[in-house]
Fold:
Amino acid sequence: MATTAYKRSSSELYQTIQEISRNRAQKRLRLIVKKPIVSTSITTFTGLLESAGSSNEALQLLIKISDALQFDEPEMGEAVRKLCEHFKKEQESAVRVKILALFGDFAADTSYDGALLANEVLTLLKSESSAKVICQALHSLHKIGISQSLPQSHVAKMVITARNSLTSQSHNVQRHALLLLGAFASVEEDSVEKTVELIGRYTDSQDSRVRAQAFRSILTLGGRGVNLAPDLYPRATDALRDDYECVRKEALQLVYELGTRHPEHMILVPDSDMEMRLVDAAFGKVCSAMCDLSMQVRTQAAELLGGMTAVGSEFLNQTLDKKLMSNLRRKKSLHERNLENFTSGEWSSGKKWADDAPKEFLNAASISLIATGACGALVHGLEDEFLEVRTASVDSMCRLALIHPPFASTSLDFLVDMFNDEIESVRLKAIYSLTMISKHITLREDQLETMLSSLEDYSVEVREGLHLMLGACKVSTQACLKLVVQKILDVLSKYPQDKESAFGCLQRVGQKHPDLCMALTPQLLQDHPFFDSAERDVEDPAYVCILVMLFNAAQHRPPMLSLFPDTTVRHYGYLRDTMPNFVPHLMLRTVVDQTQLTGATGSRQFLETLLYNIDAAYSAPRARQALLEAAQSNLDRLAEIDPALSGTANFTAMFLGAQLLIHQLQSCIAPKQNKTPSRESLNLLMRKCLKLQNLFSHLTKEDWLLVKQISLRASALHLVIVVKDRSQSALAPCQLLLHIAADISVFLQDNPDIVADKFTGSILQSLAAISDPKPGRVFWEILPIVQSATPVVTPRVNVDIRMCTARILEPCNVASVENQIKVTAGLIAAVPLVADIENLQDYQRQDLRIRIKYPDQNIHTVVPRLRDVKRILTESGEEVNNWRLRTTILLSHGVWTEATHVEIFVCLSVRPGTELELCKSVKIMFAPKPVKRGI
Structure:
């Protein structure tokens, strides 16, 4: 079977593949190629609608209009008019419903005026009696109002229509009318009270959906800035006992909103003359919902508890105790009890047991300041059978503990118990929660035993989370510190792949416990006071863990340096050079730290001086070119030795490198020059521009303008060189230039306070004057501008710039044949891959790629799953743009004569077919062997 593929121009989106079968006996393979949707005139459909013979045919045509929704704006007015005419003469309600639904889609998906659509819907609604059609009309009005900004007069008509529709007998009409009122009713003080009162009447409706929508509309008004009065609280609490889950969920949300909006408002306790704060009462009601029959309600209640941070400490502590506290009951004095007996005038009749007992022991729940359902509410949540409830309870407990430090110590034991949960995500949530509240707690030995037992978990995420938590927490005694160190070393021998995580854990342990580390230094180093100990292997991960902890502790306690033996001093020099991110700078004898800089101030001063010298040579091309060449190597070195300024140094070096390439290529296309530009230099320039656009974050508006301007120069230069070369099509470079020009034009319009340079202004003016931008016409317009372009202005120093980079932790570079990966040729070898990606934006996660390059230059690109890319959390719980990629790549190839290197990269896909490398390649030995055939 032969296959012939015909390529089209780059402006088309798809390819047509034709197959010709030469042997009829073979099977024919039919390839179905998805064709792009072609815009069709809407008047064609509406014309067919007029001649439709039945309601079914009309409905099918309306469905086709709904599927297309890509029409020219001038035709929309006539189409809407014809649809309205058909609506008036159509007898079938389903067709009328579809027409009104189309009006809502037009407002959301096209640029047609929403005010005209709203007018048409309101007009059609006046003569309508079908409940289904009225319901759809209200829904379309809501969609139109949400999609586009309508005049106040139209909004007022919509509100009046919604008020009139509330008298309908249909629950759907009432529900959509309430939805419209909540979204568009006036929020002015003189009318909003009447609106809330009107909506509140429907919280007692016979239909549960209307009741739920009434509460939801009240919440919508609150979200629009309406001050919800505390008078709504009794109505919301009564709805918590509703038979339907949807009503209870909305009422619970309203109770939460009232409690957080009016925390200090005092209300009466039921069956008592005592008063309590509204936030405390609402907290008790939300706690009671933790025992609801519905899992969704329990989950919602568990989530809401974490937001009620103004609750009193006595009520907060009650959520961790299943027994009602006695001090939450009001005890009356002897005089008050005698007075009640005297004024009642009654004696014990003997017909009822203990009817003369003291009043304080009668019906204690009726005079409780907190509902009994709140007793142990968070404990109930942690013990719930559904993981959603447990996860929400752990999160709320963490949020409350961050605001109330005494509660953090009380909840510590409960969070530690969650380390044994059967679901991994719950265990991770408990670990990260305990990490965030670590500043308020100190761990005891009995608590550590439960925590450290989880270190042997099979999940690497759990083990790394525990390393982060142990590094963030403080321990109380030397025995606790020894227990932590010993357990980490034991688990490290079982899971050697956790080496990097263990180093980071003990680094933070040493920084937080310098005094305890100082007392344990001789014991940990096995340093005998009288006899010399054998020198330990500096490549042993367990020994390196101990040294990392002690060196970081010595940074805060300099007297520890005198306790180090000579072998430890020598090992410090080696580890300082090989692991500078784990080993700090210490003033040890006979050791001189060659990598220490003068600090961030010196690095920034060097960078500013460098850019100043380049600007000073602006009018001297030869001197400027020499400075640009020297500056690149200096900035690359600065990025290596000063991590704080690595992003700024890399950005500046890449920008200057693009300037240098533009200068070299521009000299080739000068009027009296006949040099042939290097295609490699042109490709390198375009890749540098892509890196400037996609790999750097925290850029200022001025930085973005410089990046867009140099990209515009590069694309213009690219088009000129391609047209002059005449060896390839210039359509793609021309389209790229027009796209970049349109982007920078929009950017300048959105930021009128910044001004583009002369070259950019001339290019944008020339392109705007071209009516038919074909490559040849564009070339002749921009050629004199490109040939006479002046150098680009260098960027200013911005120390906040961060560059997206990656570091492959596993597999490591393998150079020896002994560690080669052997597999039978044609089969698959699974290789685990672990990489850390720094400063990756959230939206770029789906653009990560893994590239595998074989020795025969075959390249395979792997798209990792999104669940394999997880965010790396910090001790404070802040979400930084650092991610960990943990996946498995598959290697396969034909027979090789000997083992050869396979290169693995982590890349970022910026456009189809173009990936930017984020790290240096890792080389592993791969040996596909021939199949061994038996006798």
